[in-house]
Write a structure and sequence with these properties.
By secondary structure, this protein is of the alpha/beta class. The protein has 11 helices and 13 strands.
Length: 312
């Protein structure tokens, strides 16, 4: 099910000219900005959208949906114009790039933050709070044949492992399969879901459950779940904003997340470009508030400079 949130600001405390210190410097804009894609990136983009409408442009409606990275690209890459942005928890695929070229859509990739694939278990699970990287892989890998917890490590209970994760619509699934599992088959018994809230609920109800998703969803549900500390070879590492960095201790499970901009829409609709600039100026602060590690300042500034150049 595609969950659509249209954020509407009812208060009138917007900055009338849109000239806030961290804004896109638009002049009294109006109209809509349409965003779809990654469920992982959704909390971050929703925060930016709400702040933009409240503090920057009260007459612009920013609509944020979360159909998943792959499903979102199908709505983004549409002849004649689809969505303005597509959030993605993976890079654009070669076939998607080809489709964009065939449709004459100029796409700008904007890296917005860093996320850590987080392995979560039920609060009552008192045996698997620390796992090696290989044990995590083996639990989800079909060829490893780990059916019970006792198959993973001696001393673990003789109980069936219940695996969960986001479905194929999500870039998180694709990153996990491609990068962490090396494009090898997941266990047949895995329960894959479209909605992250459903995954959280399933794990909280099953003592033998283990699941993977982005750090932000763990952070917002940490009272109900336990995050597995993963040993990548130098001792167990807890996922956190400090460890989820491209050169950090959690780096093997760290990935960048993106939003993709239709440049044609940005040139046609000034509010789209204005929001893009605002988002890149404010994503570092919003990232920390929504469970993402911020990108280096110089990397964000390069994107801002590029977007400012589209005004000319």
């Amino acid at each position: 099910m595609t969950v659509l949130l249209v954020i509407v600001v009812a208060c009138g405390n917007g900055n009338e000219g849109g000239n806030g210190d961290e804004g896109g410097n638009g002049e009294g804009l109006e109209g809509s900005v349409v965003i779809d894609g990654s469920g992982t990136v959704y909390p971050l983009m929703s925060r930016l959208a709400e702040d933009y409408m409240t503090n920057e442009q009260e007459n612009v409606s920013v609509e944020v949906s979360r159909s998943g990275t792959s499903a979102g690209f199908k709505k983004f890459l549409v002849e004649g114009g689809g969505t303005d942005f597509n959030n993605a928890s993976r890079k654009m695929k070669e076939e998607e790039v080809t489709t964009a070229e065939e449709l004459g859509i100029n796409v700008k990739e904007l890296k917005v933050a860093l996320d850590g694939i987080t392995i979560v278990i039920n609060k009552e699970n008192d045996w698997a709070a620390e796992l090696t990287q290989q044990e995590v892989v083996d639990i989800f890998l079909a060829s490893a044949g780990k059916k019970k917890w006792s198959d993973v490590r001696e001393g673990f209970p003789d109980e069936p492992i219940k695996t969960y994760g986001p479905n194929e619509n999500h870039g998180t699934y694709e990153f996990f399969w491609e990068t962490i599992l090396g494009e090898q088959d997941l266990v047949e018994e895995i329960n894959l879901q479209q909605d992250y809230a459903t995954l959280v609920s399933l794990v909280t109800k099953d003592k033998n459950a283990i699941a993977f998703f982005g750090y932000g969803y763990y952070e917002s549900n940490k009272d109900e779940l336990t995050a597995v500390n993963v040993d990548f070879g130098n001792g167990p590492v807890a996922p956190s904003l400090e460890t989820i960095k491209e050169d950090g201790a959690y780096a093997p499970f760290t990935r960048p997340v993106y939003t993709y901009l239709n440049e044609g829409m940005a040139k046609e609709k000034p509010q789209v470009l204005d929001f893009a600039i605002y988002a890149m100026k404010n994503t570092a602060a919003a990232s920390k508030e929504t469970g993402f590690a911020p990108l280096p300042e110089e990397e964000l500034q390069a994107s801002i400079d590029y977007l400012e150049g589209l005004k000319q």
